[in-house]
Amino acid sequence: MDARHTFDFLTNPERFMTFSRWAAPLLGVLSTLAAIAGLVMTFLVPEDYQQGDTVRMMFIHIPAAVLSMFIYVCLGVASFLALVFRQALADLAAQACAPIGAVYTALALITGSLWGKPMWGTWWVWDARLTSVLVLLLFYLGYMALRGSLEDEQKAARAAAILALVGVINLPVVKFSVDWWNTLHQGSSTFMAAKGDGLPAIYAWPAALMGLAYLGGFGALWLVRIRALVWRRKARGLSLKLAETAR
Amino acid sequence: MSFDFDAGKYAAYLWPAFAISAVAFAWLIADSLAGARRWKRQAERLQAELDELKS
Asked: Is B16 touching A (CB cutoff 8 A)?
């Protein structure tokens, strides 16, 4: 096979449809299995000596928070490919991942708030981590609003892609906010955790399984939503052809 | 090891967090599948109409 065509299944709509027809359900099944195992472990692990049963909140809060940033990276890369290389499928991929990213980010904020109230004594505080995640949510919502507000789809796609790329600046702020500023939110306990701040092994397993479940869920939903947008584009093209043929 | 579903005084925070997450995922799955099905049917219907018109 010619190396130049290795990634055709990601750029050629027809090949993408063939690939995603089996990849989406496969990812869905793997994600469901990881979620079942993760949830079983969530309620099997002992409660934390300080946080009590609220520690179980971690297994849905951390995956949502990590994925909210990862999905924005996908949105940024897809927007870049659409804007610079005019990849039509990349534009659809960017459009498809924004609502999923918005839901994941909203879940990170809501579960974080429900965890913060019993542990910090407050639902919300304007510290750097919480505020930058709220800004992330606003970028997702702004992206979707911009795409929906312009009638010319090409103009809307360009404007939204530029907004998405501007929003990438916020990602290191979210990630390093707990290091750069003095925040109520704790420092990293997963990736790049300081010595002694990492998750105990007994909590790492359910956290990893739920992380895989959220990641697989995103993958499956992303593929399904891109498929919907490919069909929508096809339907619009056919409508125009029908109108021309009927004339 | 046994399941611990008794969240005690934290139940008012823990269960809503899981319930909201479950509802959000249920909505995402339903909305994604419904959208894909709707546009697929629309494309197939229009293709059939076009084929009929051409023949």
From this structure: yes
